[in-house]
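Before surveying the methods themselves, we first show a specimen of the format, giving the amino acid sequence and backbone structure tokens:

:::
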Amino acid sequence: MIYCCIMLTPEESDFDEKGEIRTSSILHFYELAAGVHVEALGIGPDDFIKDDRMWVLSKVKVQFMTDESGASRKQAFAPGKSIKVVTYPVNQKSVTFRREFCILPGDSDYPINPADGAWVDGVQRPDKEEALLIGASQWTIVNFKTRRVERTNLDFPTTEGKHELIEGKFEKIRGRDLEYAGDFVVPEADIDRNKHMNNSHYIEIAQIVTGRRVSEYAYVNFAKETLLGDRILMYREEQEDGLYVEGRLGSEDGSIVFQSIIR
């Protein structure tokens, strides 16, 4: 029950005008796999809603892998070409849950899990050398009514030992000498079942507003939810680790909505 793997087939809409896979689609694929996993464990959204709780993605990293020649495997994604999305939890604290994920070629031997409603025994961590992309994420449980993070004694299965695909903690990132890059108004199409903008879309608008694409790596820290019609002011700064992009609410308080690194 630790390792979950689903098969998906990207569509034309998952690719941008240059034919490259959208980072928001990558995160959407991952959220689908994580959803299948927690539903099978009996702690999915429908199980939580009766207690006014919901899962919220708070931080995420993605890294495209390279082949032996050093070429990015981002180009391996294509419309109609199946992929396997694998995810599993690696540790749990009182308010945060870390979960790894990776995307494998559709013809990988890695087993679909669960298969035909049953969990496959003996499934191991996927081989990152085979992966097209690897990722790490941090989730919290939020009260749907109060919008506050809740502590929990949830008995959540995790892997034993060191199984991180992207090693290390979720480091703090921040801007220092920011310049205004543009703004974005949250449309209805980006609103999810929790009535706020889906977190997978923030990295997409960061790329649209700045004109910088994720070619190798992206890290996003989600700080505050936004609602339909909210205006997000975008700021940018070139840093050693890549392009730092920050979104703030266009209201009087100017709260930080998200922080990200793109390269």
